[in-house]
Design brief:
Pfam families: Aminotran_3. The chain has 457 residues and is α/β, with parallel strands linked by helices. The chain is built from 13 helices and 16 strands. Strand 1 and strand 2 form a beta hairpin. 47% of the residues are buried. The structure holds pyridoxal-5'-phosphate.
């Protein structure tokens, strides 16, 4: 492509491109001019710590040399429609099954997270002969019509009125729960009892699957209380319902385990993945199914498909990406760096506006409040996406950018999910920037005339 100067790129972008989830007049995108590891530089030469791995996919960091090398060989890769066997498709499926829970047997490849979830719903319906799908409030499963119906937050409103048979239940969200629990186990029991009731009210024999982000990511890294995931598994087994875990964001090392399900004593029936399988170097997603489900389709037609299922370029990049996780011990490294991050997050609690911090591996959220005692959120529910452009969360994310800390927010939570290659020094440098931005934010917007540090409690 010929060189186009920055002003022209921005003008053409403004004139011809529609940007997602935003009012177009609010879009003033930067251009990434250079990128390496956990850093990128914009058109003005300003350096940023990429503290959300773009959209939580660049686990191996920007411009990884092994993947750059792989791209040099793209010309040698044959293009082949899904009916052909190819080396990269077979190899990647095998590599994924090797690192997935032991009951998993086969992979169906799709293009990204949302369509993988759509295919998982169809597979669950075909296998069970049932039609209802349970999924949770405060979840995000993608923007297609099917995944949009699964999603339990304001981004689903554009697919409403929704599909019949898509039922929502509550995600445990202990920081904002009004009931007091003596232990995490007690909280899990509370939510499980309500889920059990809802299953009974809906008719267990009509429910094909319970669909969950193993750890809801965009909605604020909501880590399930102890015993909850195991309890959902038990309910699924009891009623013959499939347990489907969406590992699109939490999978591939993000939480310090290869898949987030490994934090719990569970084996889901189906798992979906995308992002980290290629780290975004080429689009790819997929559905992993258990041995039982895989065997079922030996004798029954798998009535789903797509032109690029198992696309040779993406699966080749996927093979190289999975090798990197192993060669660089990225999953173990993420667990180790997660401890450094958790420690820095604990320290943030001294700030008056930090209501809660949640962290598992390099998957973290900082939830901001106007008032620690009342927990009043910085932004009211559903006010993201253009409605709050001049609001406090936008101001804070703007200040983070001004300090060179790149990330995004959802509701009142700020995502912190850097590439898994980050070092302890880099993590500490970035968190220093976060604290500087937070100090400025409180001084400028929240408590301009007050002592800024809240008493420790
Ligand atoms: C948990 C989860 N599932 C599904 C998706 C949708 O993936 P995609 O944007 O690739 O369709 C996302 C996107 O962020 C996600 O976080």
């Amino acid at each position: 492509m010929e060189h186009i100067d920055d002003r022209q790129i921005k003008a053409d972008d403004r004139q011809y491109v529609l940007h997602s989830w935003t009012r177009q007049k609010d879009v003033h995108p930067k251009i990434i001019r250079k990128a390496n590891g956990i850093f990128f530089w914009d058109e003005a030469g300003r350096k940023f710590y990429d503290m959300c791995s773009q959209l939580v996919y660049l686990n191996v960091g920007h411009h990884h040399p092994k993947l750059m090398e792989e791209f040099k060989h793209i010309g040698e890769i044959p293009l082949a429609s899904p009916g052909f066997a190819t080396a990269s498709k077979a190899e990647l499926a095998k590599k994924i099954i090797e690192v997935a829970p032991e009951n998993m047997a086969k992979v169906f490849f799709a293009n990204g997270g949302a369509d993988s979830n759509d295919h998982a719903v169809k597979i669950a319906r075909m296998f069970t002969g049932r039609y209802k799908i349970f999924s949770r409030y405060r979840s995000y499963h993608g923007a297609t019509f099917g995944a949009g119906n699964l999603s339990g937050e304001s981004r689903r409103f554009t697919v409403e009125p929704g599909l019949p048979g898509f039922i929502k239940f509550e995600t445990p969200y202990l920081y904002r729960e009004t009931v007091h629990f003596d232990s995490e186990e007690a909280a899990a029991d509370f939510y499980l009892e309500r889920l059990n009731n809802q299953i009974l009210y809906e008719g267990p024999d009509t429910i094909a699957a319970i669909f969950m982000e193993t750890i809801p990511g965009s909605n604020g890294v909501l880590i399930p209380p102890k015993g909850y995931m195991e309890g959902v598994r038990e309910l699924c087994t009891k009623y013959g319902i499939l347990m489907i875990c969406d590992e699109v964001m939490a999978g591939f090392g993000r939480t310090g385990k290869m898949f987030a399900v490994e934090h719990f004593d569970i084996k889901p029936d189906i798992m979906t993945f995308a992002k980290g399988v290629t780290c975004g170097y080429s689009p790819l997603g997929g559905v992993i199914v258990s041995r039982e489900i895989a065997d079922y389709f030996d004798d029954h037609v798998l009535m789903t498909g797509l032109t690029y299922s198992g696309h040779t370029v993406s699966t080749q990049i996927g093979c190289a990406t999975l090798d990197i996780y192993k060669e660089e011990h990225l999953v173990e490294h993420a667990a180790e760096m997660g401890e450094v991050l958790a420690d820095r997050l604990e320290q943030l609690k001294r700030f008056a506006s930090v209501g809660d911090v949640r962290c598992i591996g390099l998957f973290a959220a900082v939830e901001l409040v106007k008032d620690k005692a009342t927990k009043e959120p910085l932004i009211a529910y559903g006010m993201d996406y253009g409605k709050d452009k001049a609001g406090l969360m936008s101001k804070f994310v703007g200040l983070l950018m001004a300090h060179g800390f790149y990330t995004y927010s959802h509701e009142s939570s700020v995502m912190i999910a850097p590439p898994l290659i980050i070092t302890a020094d880099e993590l500490n440098e970035a968190m220093d920037l976060f604290e500087q931005a937070l100090t400025d934010f409180e001084k400028l917007y929240l408590f301009p005339r007050q002592n800024l540090m809240a008493p420790q409690n």
